[in-house]
Write a structure and sequence with these properties.
The protein is an alpha/beta fold. Helix content is about 35%, strand content about 20%. An eight-stranded parallel beta sheet has the order 8-7-6-5-4-3-10-9. Helix 1 crosses helix 2 (about 70-85), helix 7 (about 215-230) runs parallel beside helix 8 and helix 8 (about 250-265) crosses helix 15. The longest helix has 25 residues, at about 135-160. It is globular, with a radius of gyration of 26 Å. It binds iron/sulfur cluster.
Length: about 650
Amino acid sequence: MKEQYASSLTQYVRRPTREVYIGEVALGGNNPIRVQSMTTVDTMDTLGSVEQTIRMVEAGCEYVRITAPSVKEAENLRNIKAELRRRGYQVPLIADIHFTPNAAELAARIVEKVRINPGNYADKKKFETIEYTDVTYQAELDRIRERFIPLIKICKEYGTAMRIGTNHGSLSDRILSRYGDTPLGMVESALEFLRICEDLNYYDIVLSMKASNTQVMVQAYRMLAQKLAEEGLQPYPFHLGVTEAGEGEDGRIKSAVGIGTLLEDGIGDTVRVSLTEAPEFEAPVAKMLIHRYATRPGHKEIKPICNLPINPYQYHRRSTTEIGNIGGHNVPRVIADISKLTALQYADLKCVGHLYSMLLDKFSMNDLGADYIYTGSHPVSFMLPNGLKEIVDYAAWLTAGQRTEHYPVLTAAEYTAGTPHHPEVNFVSNNIESLTADNLALLKADSTAVIILFTDNEHAMAELRKGIFRLMNNGILNPVIINRQYPDMLAEQLQLYASTDVGGLLLDGLGDGVVLSTEKMLERTKAEWLAVIDGLNKLSFGILQAARTRMSKTEYISCPSCGRTLFDLQETTAMIRKRTDHLKGIKIGIMGCIVNGPGEMADANYGYVGVGKGKIALYRGQNIIKKAVPEERAVDELIELIREDGNWLEPLVLEQELDNF
Ligand code: SF4
C-alpha cells in the first residue's frame, strides 16, 4: 500500500510515537491513552478553578487545561497550581493560549504544558485573502519564527511541554490563502510551527487537528501522521478531539464518530471529549471510548489489505448501483431490527418514528422514521405506513405471501442455493468469510442483491472495512448495509461503540445503510424492548448525521465553554434547541465568545455568539448580521433571522398531538 497513515489497517496496533512527559505523567510511547478536559470557570476565580479541577480529576482526568486569555490569567495559574498541590492534587496543568504570546511565555514558566493555536499565535484574523509569492510567504514564516522562538526557549528551560493545536475553524489568513480551508491547510499550519521547534531541538510536543466536521478532522489527523513520516519529522503523539461536538446524545455520538475512527487505527495518545456540559461529564465518556482498546490487540486475525481502494484523505462515497431505494445517490438507509417483538400493534411503530393516530386512522412519520423494519420470522400482520418497508427471514418470506415491499433476507448459503428470490430486492447476509470468489461472482451479476455485512471480530470496523474493500477491489457495486450486533451492555457504551464502528466506515464513504441490534432482548418487557429499539433507531440516525451522510435534524455546533464564555452555554443551548430542533438540516453555532467563536463555527448556517456581558452577536454563515443584541431578545431575533431567509418552519404539532393522544 502506497499511502499508509497507520501501522496497520487490519491488525490493531498503536501508532508508535515519542514519549512526552507532561509533568510526571507521560503520554505517547507505551503509555496508556490519556484522558483530559478543560475547566469552564473564569481563570481569575482561583477557588472555583481549583474545585472544578478536583471534580474533573475525580472523574478521571489525567491532565487539566485552563484558559489563559491574557497575562493576568496566566499569572493566576500560579495560585491555582499552588492550591491544588496544597490539597494534594498533582494533576499536570495545561495553559490554553490564543492570540497572546506574552501569556504563553509566562504560563510556560508556571504549568506543565502550554497549548498554542498556530492559527492565531502570531496572526490576527482579518478574514482577508492575500496573494503570497514564495518570498512574501517566507517573510511571514520568518516573522512567526521570531515571535515563537522565545516560547520554545522558555519551554526548554523549564521542561514544559507544548501542544501545537490546530483548529479547523481558526486557520490563519495566510494558511487559508495558500492551502484553503482543507485538511492539508490544517496540517501545514501545525508543521510551520513544528519545524521551528525541531530547528531548536525542542521535541516535547503533542499535536492536534481538531474540527467540528468529523470528516475533515479524521482526514487531517491521518494526513498529519503521513506527513510527519514523509518529512522525516519525529513521530509526535496526538491529542484527539472533535470541537464543538455539542451536548447530550448528539455530542457523544459525534465525538465517538471522530475520535473512535482514529482510535480504531491505533491513532491517538490522549483524548478530550468536548461537550457543552459540565467538564466532569467529559472524562467518563473519554474513558469509555478508550477502554475498548485495552483488550483489542488480541483480536482475531484479519488478513492485510494489498490494495487500498479509497483515498483516506478525501471523502468519496463508494459508487454503488441503486437497488430499490438503497445505494446509488440515495441517502444511507436506516433499518430497525424489531425481530424479537411479536404481535406488533400500529402504535408500536412509534419506536421507529412512524406515528399512528387512532383519531385520524393514519400514520405520520417524524424526521427519524426508519426506512425499513426487520421483523425476522414474525412478519407484520397489517399494512405498513407509506414509506416503511419490511425485511423478513427467507423462510418467513416464502410462506408469508411474498407481498410487495416485503423483502427476504437470505443467508449466504440460502443465496447460493439459487432458490426463488424477490424479483427486485433481496438482502444477502454475509461476513468476510462468506465473501468467497463464487459468492462474489453471484453478487456481481445480481442487480437485486443488497449485502448486509456483519462481523463477530472484536476489531469490527477494520474487518467490515476490509470486507467492503474486497468488494471494491472485485468491481462489485452492490450496496452494503452495515450490521452491528452488540451483546447486552450499557446504553451509553453501545452508543459510543456503534458510533465508532459504523461512523468509521461512513467517514470513508463506505456503507449504504445501517442496522443495529442488541442481544438478550427476550428478557425485557415489551415496554423496555420498545425503548431499546427507539434508542437504536435514534442512534442510527445520529451516527449518519454525525458522519455527515444524512441530515435528519437540526445540528448544533456549540462550544464546550471555558473561562472566556460570556453566557450560560448549557442553558442557552437548551433554549435554542427547544425552539429550533424541528429545522431539519440547519446548522446553528452557539459560541461563548467572539474571540474564537466565529472561526470555530465555520460550518454553521447561523451563529449565536457572546460578544460582551449580556450581549449577543448573530451571524448568517460567517457574516455578522446583528452586533449586540440584548441576551433576553437574542433567541427571538435569531429565529427572525432564520425566518427572513425563508428557512423557518412552524413546529409540527401532529407529533405532539399524537404524544398526548
Ligand atoms: S468559543 Fe467557547 S470554548 Fe472557545 S474560547 Fe470562546 S468561550 Fe471558550
